[in-house]
Amino acid sequence: MDDVLHERVREIIESVPAGTVATYGDIAALAGAPSPRMVGAILAEDGHDLPWHRILRANGTPAPHLVHDQLERLRAEGVLADGQRVDLRKYRWKPDGDEDPGEEGLF
């Protein structure tokens, strides 16, 4: 992986505001990364200083090994889960400012 892409992924994750979430796929699409798994790998290797807890799987759930800590951190920011799933329609970050809740797609 090149350093430019690595840093772009980090910058995008860092820009996800408190009280919102994004998926690994959202971050990959914004960064031009080839897959959401690459975003996960960057977070696992170099994400300790990022708001990693704001990044979820495509179905709105945390990775199983992070579920308790991640949902607790999100709850502290006002993001509430139904069981272990966050409602992406309600809490998903819209970086372009598009607030139309009826619109389908990444954002």
UniProtKB/TrEMBL annotation:
One of its GO terms (biological process) is DNA repair. InterPro entries: ATL_DNA_repair, MethylDNA_cys_MeTrfase_DNA-bd, MethylDNA_cys_MeTrfase_DNAb, WH-like_DNA-bd_sf. Pfam families: DNA_binding_1. It comes from the Bacteria. Residues 6-79 form the Methylated-DNA-[protein]-cysteine S-methyltransferase DNA binding domain. GO terms for molecular function: catalytic activity. Keywords: DNA damage. Gene3D superfamilies: Winged helix-like DNA-binding domain superfamily/Winged helix DNA-binding domain (1.10.10.10). This is MGMT family protein. The lineage of its organism: Bacteria, Bacillati, Actinomycetota, Actinomycetes, Pseudonocardiales.
